[in-house]
Amino acid sequence: MMNMKPMNILLAPVLALMLWGCGDAAVPEPVLTGGALQLRSVDLPDPSVTRALGATQLKEIGVYVTDHSHVALSQNAKSVYTLASGTWSSVAPPEITVTNSSTPNRLYAFFPSSLSVTNSTSGNHSVPVQVVADNFSASRQTDYLYATPLTALATSRAVTFTMNHALAKVSFRVLKSDNVQETLILKKIELLSSTNRLQTGMSGTMNLTNGVLNGLASTNSITLDGAVELGTLQKNPNVSALVAPMSASETRLSFRLTVEVTETDGSITARSFETAVVNTVQWKAGFHYVYAITVDKMGGSLTNVKIDAWKSDANQNTGIGI
Fold first, then answer.
1. In 72-114, at which residue ranges do the beta strands (DSSP E only) sit?
2. Is 104:174 a contact under the CB 8 Å cutoff?
3. Using CA atoms, how far apart are residues 27 and 34, in angstroms rounded to an integer?
4. Band of the pLDDT at 13, cuts 50, 70, 90?
């Protein structure tokens, strides 16, 4: 008997584990019945081509939450999430309490975060936008962003938003001809649309579901202003602007440039010229259109256009008529 006691002591923990594992009662998994919406991350357009991202990355977005029937939450339907030390958080996050997977909450995100949201019973929620004539550095026009909508449940409330551009970007690579010795300062580029496909307005809206802009006024011209000295070697665009997408294809688009020519005697003469009509084009949200123009003292020629998606994973080049 004395020899058995140590064995019994050693077996006791093993027997206890076996008996616990064979019991009818099981420890249930914890159930989340509610809690704050958590933002894991925000997928962004290329930071090198959108002023909204600041020097490095987007720091703040607005978030809007409704129930499955598009009714805004009674508390914190609209909140602001900010990025600090690699973590997105909100001081007043929406509470996600829905547990029925067939009726999840609907989530929308947008930039700038300060915009107020107008609710729509059909789900076409919107924020106000203003589209103005930009300058040469794309710093006058706000870069509006919207997210691909998401859904969330109380048991699945950590999400990642993918942001998209609501505007198009138009750039120019303007250089002077090799036979020009005088100083040329580009002062103005007028975008000319014979069929009024350009759009501006101070009372527009952006649909948070698809980023479509509404309520803008059609116009036949938009003037970009600035001051850029032209050189004979210009590999990259020296003029960029943000514009509203075109509602339909433009068959007669051209550009009128105004340059200041410093003559040999020191006098300055302003000269303007209009390019030939470009090929049929429709500026679309999220795309970057680059036009190359060569200027001399008497006029200029439009040599080609390059069309890129703002994200580098989709590129397209196309020729243009002169």
1. 78-84, 87-89, 105-111
2. no
3. 21
4. very low
Strand-pairing partners, residue 307, are 289, 316
Residues 72, 69, 118: CA angle, nearest 5 degrees: 40
Could you give the C-alpha distances from 103 to 63, 70, 132, in angstroms and in order? 19, 11, 40
Reported as a single tens digit per residue, the pLDDT across 120-159 is 999 999 999 999 999 999 999 999 999 999 999 999 999 9
First to last CA, the chain: 107
Buried b (16+ CB within 10 A) or exposed e, 58-83: bbbbbbbbbbeeeebbeebbbbbbeb
Amino acid letter, 64: Y
Distance (Å) of CA 138 to CA 110, 130, 216, 219:
20, 14, 19, 20
Residue 25 or residue 227, greater confidence: 227
- In whole angstroms, how far apart are CA 276 and each of 184, 290, 320, 321? 21, 16, 10, 8
Count CB neighbours of 274 within 10 A.
Answer: 14
Q: How many helices (H) and strands (E) does the chain have?
A: 1, 21
Q: What is the spatial distance between Cα 183 and Cα 176, in angstroms, rounded to a whole number?
A: 9
